[in-house]
Amino acid sequence: MSEARAGVAPFLPPRPRLRVLAEFLRLPLSHPIAEAAGFLVLSPMLLLAALWNGFPLIFYDTGAYIFEGFGERFVAERSPVYSLYIVLAGGGWSLWLVALAQAAMTAFVMLQTARCVAPRLPLGWLAAMAGGLVLLTGLPWYAAQIEPDCFTPLVVLSLYLLAFHAERLGTWRAGLLLAVAALSIGAHPSHLGLAAGLIFVLAAYRLATKFSARFAWLRASLLAPTLATLLGFALVFAGNYHFTRSVFISRAGSVFVFARMLQDGLVKQVLNDTCPQSHYALCAYRNALPDRADKWLWGPRTPFVALHRFNGTEEESQRIVLESLKRYPLLNIGLALRDSAEQFVTFRTGDQIEPQQWVLYPDFHTYIPGQLKAYATARQQKGQIDFRPINAVHVPIGWLALAFLMAMLGLAVQQRDAKSTVLLGFVLAALLGNAIICGVLSNPHARYQSRLIWVPAFALILLGSEKRLLRDV
Prior knowledge:
The protein is mainly α. About 70% of the residues lie in helices and about 0% in strands. It has two domains: about 30-250 and about 340-470, no CATH class; about 255-325, no CATH class.
């Protein structure tokens, strides 16, 4: 009996098999099979940093999210939405499930962005592009980190897609994207401001299109992005209510702004100018204030700790912030601009991805003891990750991405290329907004901009690929 009749697939020689593979990799992302394959290729690629580490990457804040989510106790400085997400994503069984869900959402948003911006892009090109981003940017270090920073680029790309490509997305993709956008917006307080700012940018763009025929064909829809933003705010309200039975956005915002002002010297100036008449509790500590925001918030035996941290200092922090704005408006503006500029150009990978057992061990031991051994034996906890050679690549790539973003945006405007102008302009607005929000309302940290710096490179590659493919048609 022949192999064909026996139901056994006949042997294919290597060359035909390679031809089949080559044809498969040439399938455009607009093809459903290529779209599904693209998702299956991207998702595990985004986990490569964590797989190499031996455990999902951990940040200092991870312990507070675990404590809040599994301990069912409100932590003023941490997002209730992300804490509950860890629980619902299966973090109690394995934090790998949390990382896998984040990688899957990131892969889905990247894939839909590629489908909409460059629908002719072959599957093989997508895989190569993703591989480059994984090696040359901080993308995989955030996608698989148990920290809401991975959601920042998803806010940007999701709102862009919902605004400009809803028709190409179709119903089910747009619905999934709306859900991802809402979760991403609610996952961190800075995302609320970023989303609100981008809605303002979209509204301004829509108004501008009414007076200019140049972009008339590329209209912006406000309905879906606004709905996603409102749902993100609703998740925050619901999360806070779940833990406190009160409805509010944040009880820590004024404290973080205060810490940034302390680092800039403004708090000491207010205390010197108003104590003792102001009767601030901090008057007794004005000569013992640390000069760094992080030391004030997280250091041991500081006045912040003596005054009962976030709960004890929220009201006075707000009073001092408002007093500083009233007394020194121009100085505040100047320092805010300086901090924003510093944040805009600070994007090293690996900010505080280091051994953290002394901080997180109690939370792991109490709430997820079954994962403690894998956590403790990972490269990160052993101090075996050196980010100096990594940043020798990532930082120059970040600078190149920014430089090309500016140059190509200017060229797109000059050439009246609406598609490129809108995408690159939206990305630039997001980078600026993120820098202002994080630099001013918190204080500059490398991770805040690093989590987003791969997006301009991604956008530029997609636009360049689409133009190349159009020329070849």
